[in-house]
Amino acid sequence: MKIAEYNQMMAYLLRPRQNFDNGGYAYTNPLQKNQYIMRTDAEIQAIIDDPKYADYTRKDFRNEGILTRKETERKTLKFTNIGKKKK
């Protein structure tokens, strides 16, 4: 047996056992908070209505990293520009 295989086997055998008696995964985050803060529709609409983004489409907001895909797909938001940009 090679040393790397032995080390891998020992790491597997000596790892601490998880308790699945309660029927699920033991969540270790003590604060129980998500790392992302969800923005409200009013906040997102204020970003869309900002004059510096006057000729941005949904895809432009996604490509620039200003809004996420899930945020741009909300039904309550009103985008002023739809489709391709006109020259």
Rg, nearest Å = 24 Å
**Coarse structural class:** mainly alpha
* Poorly predicted segments: none
Largest sheet: none
Determine the fraction of residues in helical runs and give it as a percent range: 25-40%
Note the total helix count.
4
Which outline best applies?
A: elongated
Query: How confident overall, as mean pLDDT?
Result: 82
Instruction: Classify the beta-strand content into a percent band.
Output: under 5%
> Strand tally, please?
0
Order of helices and strands: HHHH
Our measurement of the CA-to-CA distance between the termini, rounded to an integer number of angstroms, reads 68 Å
Task: Itemize the secondary structure elements and their pairings.
Layout: H1 3-14, H2 41-48, H3 58-64, H4 69-72
Description:
This protein has 87 residues and is mainly α. 36% of the residues lie in helices and 0% in strands. The protein has helices at 3-14, 41-48, 58-64, 69-72. It is built from 4 helices and no strands. The termini are far apart. The protein is elongated and about 70 Å long.
Short description:
This protein has four helices and no strands.
Q: Main traits of this protein?
A:
single chain, 87 residues, mainly alpha
